Amino acid sequence: MPQEESIMTKIQEMENTLNESMYKLDVLKKRIQRKLLTTENREELEAKLEEYKEILVKTEEKLKKLRKQNTKSFMVAGCLIFAMWIVCFLLYGLYSIFFET
What we know:
Layout: H1 7-33, H2 39-99
Helix pairs in contact: 1-2
């Protein structure tokens, strides 16, 4: 049975993909700025540049969704911990009332 990846693992993978895409984008921009490119090579590099920009946008959107999901998970966990404290406090109060300690 394959183990599901955690949200944090997915976020880290997305950040790695994002950093890699940004690096490739910078390299392509520098190549395009060179003056010794043929028209064909320049068009090819510009097409790749657009492709990496699209990947960058999609990855940023996925990363935002994962971070939002991570925040929701954290809020649920926080609420559960708070609820457990309340239950413990109430049980202690009931114990104190019935056994008059």
